[in-house]
Structures are given as structure tokens and as C-alpha cells.
Predict the 3D structure of the following.
Amino acid sequence: MTQGTRICWAVDAGSISYGPACDLQRRLVQARKAGAIPDVLLLCEHPHVITLGRNGTRHNLLAGEHVLSQMNVELHSTDRGGDITYHGPGQIVGYPILNLTEHRRDVGWYVEQLEEVMLRATSDFGIAAKRVAGQHGAWIDTPAGEEKLGALGVHLSRWVTSHGFAYNVSTDLRYFDLIVPCGIAGKRVTSLERALGRSVSSGEAQRHLIVHFAEVFERRVQQVTREGLEKVLDLPQVSVPGELTATVRL
């Protein structure tokens, strides 16, 4: 699939705590609803945090407040779909802020497209990832059975999306022992590094995710710095100075 002519900004926000990331998403959603900015793919890593989605239950949290405090893990309730999950260093979190009226007004289709982005990026590393019926995300077959490589949880407001996907690159998988990941008992979580048996940089994996995001959603991606994005959001009429953008290619 070829890239489209419409623009999507890709913003690498680096390491950002979960609360400020949610605040930034809210600002982006407001601006997208107003038509002040194009679609945005916000990419980041979070310090250790466990998030509980709208459909989540605390029964799937296996650690008490004292243990979480000792391990410097925050706990947040959130308005995304899905159950409970963990975010942390070595995991790429993607927050697409898309106006689905310019794509397709279909939540199921949107979730499948996010899965497709992760499946294609994983394939670039020589690993065949797949979907599992009734269990959204990106999965791979291992000698121990099906293991989850990427998770999903989205929110829509007037067809503008927020939240998104979490893709494990070099994540410390021991932190998933604090929860029943995504509320699915008996299933393990894995990472790209574990599957490959070698180190992988977040930057390398991120480039593949961006390129396939552009393909799947038929957008021409431009990189915008986090600082540039903040400046743009503060402008009364949003536009992107040329020096803040660059077309992304592998």
C-alpha cells in the first residue's frame, strides 16, 4: 500500500510520565477536533506504570500498594478500552490522534489497522506475528505457546482517537508478573529482544512502526519535535514551520 498525500505528524516524546502523556493527548484531541492540526502519531516510553482500562478489574492486579511503591511503579485508572497492562522502559507506546471521519468510521477496523502496523513491523525483524481471535494485539508462537508482543487499548471521542498500542522491544518482562496482563490468565508476554535472542534499540523498532503506520493509514508522515509540537499547540492558528518537519523513511 502506498503512502497517501495527507499528512500525519510523528512526534517522539521520549520518556514521559503517564499523567503528562494523557494531558498532552487531551490537548491534541481538542486541537484535532477543531481541525487545527492534522493526524498525529505520538510515540513515547513511560517510566514504570500500571494502567487500568475501562473494562479492567483490580482482581487482575497481583501486587499491593506497598510492593508497587517499593518497585517505583505508578498505578493509574484510564479511559481507554481494555483491561490492565504495564508500561515501562524499552516499550514503545504509540498514541495515534486520528480523525476517523477522514479514514473510516469503524472502531473494529481501526483496531485491526493498529494490529496490522505491529504485525508488519515485527515481520521486518523476521518474526511472524499474528492476531488471536478475541484477544486484540500482536502475538507470536513460541515453544511455550502463544505469547503477546503488543497490546492495544483505544478511546474515541467524536471519532477522534486517543491511547493506542504498546509494543515490547526490550521491556523488562518481570514487571508483567505484577498483573494478569490484559486480564488474560495463562498467557505470557514477550518482547522483540526475547524473541530474537539479541538486543534491539527502541529507535530501530520505532522507525519500522512509523513507516508501516504511514502505509496502513495512507498518510505521508512528517517528524515534529516534542518542543515544536508544544509551540504549535500554543499558537492561535496551528501551522508547522518547515524546519520542524521531515519526511520519515527507513
Notes: The longest helix spans residues 107-123. The two ends are 16 Å apart (CA to CA).
